[in-house]
Amino acid sequence: LNWLYHHYYSIFNMNFSWLIMLWFFFFTFAFLVKIPIYTCHLWLPKAHVEAPISGSMILAGVLLKLGGYGLYRTYIIFKDFFMIFNNYYMMYVIMGSTLASFICLYQSDMKSLIAYSSVAHMGLVVGGFMTLSSISFNGGLIMMLGHGLCSSGLFCVANIMYERTRSRSLMFNKGLMNLYPSLSLWCFLLVICNISAPPTMNLIGE
């Protein structure tokens, strides 16, 4: 009995900080893949290109934001580890957002272009979260809401263009302003919302 008592006491007084840190990395990695950030993003353009319009709109407007919300809630549990590793995460996601923005420059497929812009924007959201201030958390949530609305609208406009021309290539969808002026207006409004021009919600978040 004396051995059992001391064995029990030693087990429950061990230092489990390494296990909690392991959980922290597993949780954050899962949500960073879901958001997704650069280097964990390879599934997103393929999913958007292959998915129907309803799937792309739900994926961009709802499902990607679950990763950001999960990261926001995880901060409450692993606050100490976030305070240790937040600078490394911030540098990583901001650099990834910059690289994703450069990838957008040579995209010709409209759905792929919107997908890579989502990677860039969500990386900026995670970078805001990693500053660990209440203002940045509120700004990140506002930006996620605004991005969910405008990216879903952009996918809808891209699908309408595809139904008209049977191509998602930007090379074959030139001069649509003369044929579909109202569609061009909606495309312009959604694009300026996506680039956070005033007075859109994305600008408030950024």
From TrEMBL:
Keywords: Electron transport, Membrane, Mitochondrion, NAD, Respiratory chain, Translocase, Transmembrane, Transmembrane helix, Transport, Ubiquinone. GO terms for biological process: ATP synthesis coupled electron transport; electron transport coupled proton transport. Its main location: mitochondrion. It is found in: Mitochondrion membrane. GO terms for cellular component: mitochondrial membrane. It comes from the Eukaryota. It is a multi-pass membrane protein. Its EC number is 7.1.1.2. Residues 12-206 form the NADH:quinone oxidoreductase/Mrp antiporter transmembrane domain. It is an enzyme of class 7 (translocase). InterPro entries: NADH_UbQ_OxRdtase, ND/Mrp_TM. The chain crosses the membrane at residues 20-44, 56-76, 88-106, 113-135, 141-162, 183-204. It catalyses: a ubiquinone + NADH + 5 H(+)(in) = a ubiquinol + NAD(+) + 4 H(+)(out). It holds the Pfam family Proton_antipo_M. GO terms for molecular function: NADH dehydrogenase (ubiquinone) activity; NADH dehydrogenase activity; ubiquinone binding. Core subunit of the mitochondrial membrane respiratory chain NADH dehydrogenase (Complex I) which catalyzes electron transfer from NADH through the respiratory chain, using ubiquinone as an electron acceptor. Essential for the catalytic activity and assembly of complex I. Belongs to the complex I subunit 4 family. This is NADH-ubiquinone oxidoreductase chain 4. It comes from Achelia sp. PYC004. The lineage of its organism: Eukaryota, Metazoa, Ecdysozoa, Arthropoda, Chelicerata.
